[in-house]
Amino acid sequence: MKRYSEHRIPGRLFVVEGIDGSGKSTQLTLLHQWLKAEGFGVVFSEWNSSPLVKDTTKRGKKKQLLTPATFSLIHATDFADRTERNIIPLLKAGAVVLCDRYIYTAFARDVSRGMDPEWTRELYAFAVKPTIAFYYRVPLEIAMKRINDARAGFKFYEAGMDLGLSDDPNESFRLFQGRILDQYEKMIPEFGLTVIDATQPIEAQQQQMRQLVLAKLTQARQLRVAP
Amino acid sequence: MKETYGVSLPGMGLLDLVGKLIVIEGTDGVGRSTQIRLLKEWLEQEGHAVLDTGLSRSGLVGKSIKRAKEGHTLGRITLSLFYATDFADRLENEIVPALRAGFVVLTDRYTYSLIARAMVRGLDPAWIRNIHRFALKPDAVFYLRIGVDELIPRAVFTRGFDYWESGIDLYSTEDMYESFRRYQSALIEQFDKLAEEFHFEVIDARAEPHVIFGQLSRAIERLLVAGPRPAQLVAPAASTVPATSVAPAASIAPVPEVVPVGLAVVPDPIAITERSERAAERREKA
After folding, report:
1. CATH number of domain containing A66
2. What is the distance between the alpha carbons of residues A68 and A202, in angstroms, rounded to a whole number?
3. Could you tell me which residues come within 8 angstroms of residue A94 by beta carbon, excluding any fewer than 6 positions away?
4. C or N: which end of chain A has fewer Cβ atoms within 10 Å?
């Protein structure tokens, strides 16, 4: 089993991180379109999407069966399945892999739920270190406004309702996501996350992102696939 | 009063876990379930409430693991984490509530089996141990030990060679016999190492079931008398009351004066017997 920074593979791995409403998924979608148009072999991998594990996670969430420990472990299982069957083979084949959320999401959430920080990091020791991990930093109030504008209400686990912080989903979301923001701030130096100011206009953020990504791709032009 | 192997889970109080956690470990087909059945019957006759449980039976993921294994598609890390999830679910939802209610929990395999399987599949030894550090330390672990030469006839004449018990996911061979032999030898080797690391009480599983039962029941009896049973301080009939109604009573029960710190060392006589038995064996061979 290779650990975090021990993987030596020809592909490139770019991940986006940030709280809900930070705009990270929008940014990653735009990057994806651009890379495809540029002729790169690019693959998108979503958090929480392993076909084997997804059903269990869904059932656990729907029936609210998950404790902080099983929440943490089932997500790690899902991520392991994607890593073993998807991310690592793709990177070995030289692909550009894009991940919407990565291990840092798990660290932020699990530690905010009271799990041991060192234990959660060890849990994900098999993960491949990303070429760049972008962190879309946004104040809580702006993120909440964006979410409220886009859809009605917060989901149970997303608002950390399992923790009993508050009976009011809005208040619970605020408290829980606040904890998550604190965790992200701690991880910036720990994992060398690349911070993007997510209050800027979408276009400005995207331009910044493309420049940083391009710098990592010029050394790897062979990654291009024939159109 | 219980402790973990170093990582505590949020919301899991350890102070009021007054029951006893007893683990039966050993490889496939060694007779664990027979012993658990006998022990449960005996303990209940003795007036102890018993929960028997095993691996891959959790409400959360038990079925998914079975399904995923049918497809033979799980990676090694994924399978290990799936098992760890299942284990955590059983620990939190079955084992801990039962211990809190003063039950004797008999578990058919525990975290050690999961570590052994991961080791055989070549995963990082430190990694898999660290993942399982949230496990509760049992009051006793009985390791039913058998050599692969004695194990094979049992498998042949009972249920045949099972796909996973033969580790066919590991070896590129069609030969079930060869695969079973290699896989089980590797597992036994890991169990032997874990036995030293985690101080298992080794029981010779080649003996007749009633002989093994005699050894196990004597050791468990000593374990149960070593510490006062707080459930009895509440009501003598506590063992017949369902877990849910016992829980509040047990949690307000006075803390026993004699904290059973010595429990871990109580079972020594067995280990000594085992050692002398092995020595006798060696003399015979010589």
Report:
1. 3.40.50.300
2. 34
3. A10, A11, A41, A220, A222, A223
4. C
Task: Identify the CATH class of B20-285.
Answer: alpha beta
Domain assignment of residue A107, yes or no? yes
Backbone angles phi, psi at A35, to 5 degrees: -65, -40
User: Phi and psi dihedrals of B108, rounded to 5?
Assistant: -85, 100
Do the beta carbons of residue B256 and residue B230 sit within 8 Å? Answer: yes
Residues of A in contact with B127 (CB under 8 A): 1, 122, 125-126
- HEC states along B219-236? HHHHHHHHCCCHHHHHCC
pLDDT tens profile B91-123 = 999 999 999 999 999 999 999 999 999 999 999
pLDDT tens, N- to C-terminus, chain B (286 residues): 899 999 999 988 888 999 999 999 998 888 898 999 999 999 999 999 999 988 765 666 666 666 666 655 678 899 899 999 999 999 999 999 999 999 999 999 999 999 999 999 999 999 999 999 999 999 999 999 999 888 888 777 776 667 667 776 777 667 778 888 888 899 999 999 999 999 999 999 999 999 999 999 999 999 998 755 544 444 444 444 444 433 333 333 444 443 333 333 333 334 434 444 455 555 455 4
- Give phi and psi for B23, each to the nearest 5: -110, 135
Q: Tokens standing for A87?
A: 């991310």
Rounded to the nearest 10°, the torsion over CA A202, A203, A205, A207 is: 160
What's the total number of domains in chain A?
1
Beta strand extents in B119-271 (DSSP E only):
140-145, 201-204
pTM, two decimals, is 0.79
Closest CA to B42 of B22, B16, B27, B17: B22
* CB < 8 Å to B61, chain A: 56, 74
- Measured at the CA of A73, the angle between CA A119 and CA A191, to 5 degrees, comes to 45
Domain housing A135: 11-216
Residues linked to residue B282 through DSSP beta bridges, in sequence order: none
* Phi, psi for B135 (deg, rounded to 5): -65, 145
Beta bridge partners of B21: B105
Among B60, B59, B139, B144, which residue's Cα sits nearest to residue B105? B139
Interface-testing mutation among B74, B77, B94, B120, with chain A (most A C-beta atoms within 10 A):
B77
Closest partner residue to B61 (CB to CB) among A56, A68, A115 is: A56
CA pair distance B137, B21, nearest whole angstrom: 8
Q: Give me the sheet containing A12-17, strands edge to edge.
A: A42-46, A96-100, A12-17, A132-137, A194-197
Domain contains A222: no
Domain coordinates of chain B in residue numbers?
Answer: 20-285
Residue with tokens 């940083």: A212
CB contact under 8 A, A123 and B61: no
